[in-house]
Amino acid sequence: MKGLRGLAWLLVFQSIGEVLARGFALPLPGPVLGLMLLLAALRFPLVREPVGECADFLLSHLSLLFIPVGVGVMTHLALLSQYGGRMLFVIVLSTWIGMGVTVLVLYRGKGQAR
What we know:
By secondary structure, the protein is mostly helical. It folds into two domains: 1-60; 64-114. It has five helices and no strands. The chain has helices spanning 2-23, 30-41, 45-60, 67-75, 77-113. Helix 1 packs across helix 2 (30-41). It is extended, with a radius of gyration of 19 Å. The termini are far apart.
């Protein structure tokens, strides 16, 4: 039952984010705003405990969420064969850039903590 409350909290914050994003014509997507609000709300046990239980459930079944992606890839094999090399290059490059930025942020944050 607590897991369902957690899912309800997730949906409530996503909905609030959507309302804010559309109501104020903000440049951020509603789910991103909802996640930022959820992050602030996770300080309270009333939200944190049910959301934690829901997150544990979703993580334990994470592999099922990749099935639609696999089906999508299989239906577009022609595109993958045409653009696969470029896609691989972009994925590897963006991964390395993300890792580099993370290293810089951690390095600078560690320097300020001293």
